[in-house]
Specification:
The complex is a heterodimer of chains A (75) and B (327). Chain A has three helices and no strands. With 75 residues, chain A is an all-alpha fold. Chain A is rod-shaped, with a radius of gyration of 28 Å. Chain B folds into three domains: 30 residues, no CATH class; 155 residues, UbiA prenyltransferase (Tetracycline Repressor, domain 2); 125 residues. Chain B has a two-stranded antiparallel sheet. In chain B, helix 3 runs parallel beside helix 16, helix 4 runs antiparallel to helix 10 and helix 11 packs antiparallel against helix 16. The chains are: A mainly alpha (75), B mainly alpha (327). At the A-B interface, helix 3 of A face helix 1 and helix 4 of B.
Chain lengths: 75, 327
């Protein structure tokens, strides 16, 4: 038997047939595959980080534009 | 988002089950990752824009709070990225047939054209508004014009219409130092107009050296680059002429006083080397030597521009300025 057949019990021809009729990817209730969900997660994380950095930047820029006296307020 | 039909759509199985046939509502699902959106911004071009804008800020006769300088540079970089994104959106059809650009996110199917358009427009408007609030509205106006020039004038009009496309369109890449100075001082002076001129005159030999090597790609895409329209010999002649003009213009900052002795030395030496490489491109017209000469000029042209602007930053930013004309 060929090495592939000894390992899997399948002929090479059978393996190629497997690939030709590979089962469709598993989709969740929204129609997303695991790969879709992974990509959406990476986009969401990138967006969250960007928004957070923007908030910080807006804050720092506002302080800089208001000048050094902005933190010195009479109570 | 229903009724859209593109290759990136997936079909909700519950909808299939509900309607019981193939004609059901489909859901458009974005396929892009964060790095694909970053690729839309042409990061290498952004880095050059940041560098030249920073030079404009450093040579400006004025001061700016470091935080505001950083924020202004970020806005300029994002604006440049936005114009690159809009360019990729518009050029997706020709990018798909060129080997150099076929793997870009839109022709590769990772990002839908509509996503890229929305992304580019959002960043364009956001960066201009942000620069206006952080610095001033002259800088913001110049940034807005630059984005418009690159996305509309160059990408949508000139690029597919005339072999002088990158000559005129090169102005878009020359604006960043002007925007940088405007962000600091609220005005534009001769210093940054000279920097504008250096980049403007540098652009044709830089891109035509590449176009000589990639003329097949551009021909397939139907882009009227000079080698395809007027032939490689005429292109070589123009490269030489522009480089003959570039070398003395590159020395101008030293002669007008905002570049010092270090700048004078670097600009003369690198300008001479650019001329030598342009002469090689002009003389070597066949075979591997011709291709090698083109790649050498293309590669060194990047070093040339970075070198000139880096020296200006060093002289002005680190107090190493030694005036050429006594004083």
């Amino acid at each position: 038997m060929a090495k592939a057949e000894r390992k899997t019990g399948k002929s090479q021809e059978y393996t190629e047939m497997d690939q030709a009729v590979a089962p469709p990817p598993v989709r969740d209730a929204q129609g997303l595959t695991e790969e879709d969900r992974r990509r959406r997660r990476s986009r969401s994380i990138a967006l969250a980080v960007t928004l957070g950095l923007l908030v910080a930047l807006f804050y720092v820029v506002t302080i800089a534009k208001l000048g050094p006296g902005v933190l010195d307020r009479p109570m | 988002m229903t009724g859209m039909t593109n290759s990136m759509q997936t079909t909700a199985p519950q909808a299939q089950g509900h309607y019981g046939h193939d004609h059901f509502e489909t859901v458009a699902v974005s396929n892009g990752e964060a790095r694909d959106f970053i690729a839309l911004l042409k990061p290498r071009v952004m880095s050059l824009v940041v560098f030249t804008a920073l030079t404009g800020m450093v040579v400006a006769h004025g001061t700016i709070h470091p935080v505001l300088a950083f924020a202004a540079l970020l806005a300029i970089a994002v604006g440049a990225g936005a114009s690159g994104c809009l360019n990729m959106w518009y050029d997706a059809d020709i990018d798909a047939v060129m080997s150099r650009t076929a793997k870009r996110p839109i022709p590769a199917g990772k990002i839908a054209p509509s996503e890229a358009l929305a992304f580019g427009m959002t960043l364009s408007v956001g960066s201009v508004l942000f620069l206006g609030l952080v610095a001033n509205w002259l800088a913001a106006g110049l940034l807005a014009f630059t984005i418009f020039f690159y996305a509309v004038i160059y990408s949508m009009w000139l690029k597919r219409w005339t072999p002088q496309n990158i000559v005129i369109g090169g102005a878009a890449g020359a604006f960043p130092p002007v925007i940088g100075q405007a962000a600091v001082t609220g005005s534009v002076t001769l210093d940054t107009v000279i920097l504008f001129a250096i980049i403007f005159i540098w652009t044709p030999p830089h891109f035509w050296a590449l176009a000589l090597v990639k003329s097949g790609d551009y021909a397939r895409a139907g882009v009227p680059m000079l080698p395809n329209v007027r032939g490689p010999d005429e292109t070589r002649r123009q490269i030489l002429l522009y480089t003959l003009l570039l070398a003395p213009v590159g020395v101008l900052p030293a002669l007008t006083g905002f570049g010092g002795m270090l700048y004078l030395g670097v600009s003369v030496l690198t300008g001479a080397w650019m001329l030598l490489l342009a002469l090689r491109v002009y003389r070597r017209r066949e075979g591997g030597d011709a291709t090698k000469a083109c790649w050498s000029l293309f590669g060194f042209s990047i070093v040339y521009l970075f070198g000139l602007f880096a020296v200006l930053i060093v002289e002005h930013g680190f107090g190493l300025m030694m005036p050429v004309t006594g004083g």
